[in-house]
Amino acid sequence: MVDLHIPVILGLIAPLFWLGFFLFEDRDHPEPKWMVAVVFGGGIFSAFLALSPEIWLNAQFPQTGLPYQNNLLIPFAFIEEFIKFAIVYLIIKYSKYFDEKVDAMIYMIAAALGFAAIENIFTLFNMLELHAILETTVIRGIGATLLHALASGILAFYWMKGRPIWGLINATALHALFNYLILRIEGDAKIYATLILVVAALFLFRDFEIIKKPKEALFKRD
User: Fold this and answer.
1) Residue 107: inside a domain
2) Average pLDDT score over residue span 76-104
């Protein structure tokens, strides 16, 4: 029997690693650690909020198998990306700690990693053998966990460019396409999923550089 603490600890490792990695992008004007923690917690809460509409959709389409899963990929991705965005918006929109456009990207990524953390933990809780838990931890750490961060970061970039709907569309498309490829059995599909993450990461780092330019530094409130 696997110790119950193990899924929790291992489920948090990758999200916290990626959180530290992305916080480095805002190292010149870092956000308060407690505020980042609040948003991370908001991301955890958003995972539970996403359950209700996802359960409802599952009830409406009770079939099983890959075709069924493919039919729900876009709705599920949209629900998760929208709820993450809504939670971050409510937490930071009028906060005094939201004073630069790059802050939106940092906070969205923090919430996404909170969302991914609870997903990781529940996934690992369903496994009984330690080797399966360790393997899944690694796979999700460089796959689904990073996906959440990239999708939400890209959404935040477009939000700060005044095009949040376009950002939501891009985040949903990235999320759904990655999940589609992961569900495929063929080995090549897994390679393509990895390539998609690499390309998305390159775009996200470009977005960080754009948003951190002096002309983008001050956030103008509505």
Assistant:
1) yes
2) 94
How many domains in the chain? 1
Domain assignment of residue 222, yes or no: no
Q: What percent of the chain clears pLDDT 90, i.e. is strictly above it?
A: 55
Axis crossing angle, helix 66-92 with helix 33-60, rounded to the nearest 10: 150
Domain ranges, residue 109: 5-216
- Of 194 and 90, the structure prediction assigns the larger pLDDT to 90
8 Å CB contact between 190 and 119: no
| Tokens at 67, concatenated | 């075709």
**How far is Cα 142 from Cα 138, in angstroms, rounded to an integer?**
6
pLDDT tens column, 31-80: 999 999 999 999 999 999 999 999 888 888 766 555 556 678 899 999 99
- From the list 80, 72, 78, the residue with the least C-alpha distance to 50 is 80
Are 149 and 174 contacting, i.e. CB atoms less than 8 angstroms apart? no
Q: Give the type of residue at 170.
A: N
8 Å CB contact between 89 and 155: no
* Dihedral sign, Cα of residue 110, residue 88, residue 151, residue 156: negative
What are the angstrom distances between the C-alpha of 214 and each of 47, 57, 100, 106, 220?
A: 35, 45, 10, 17, 13
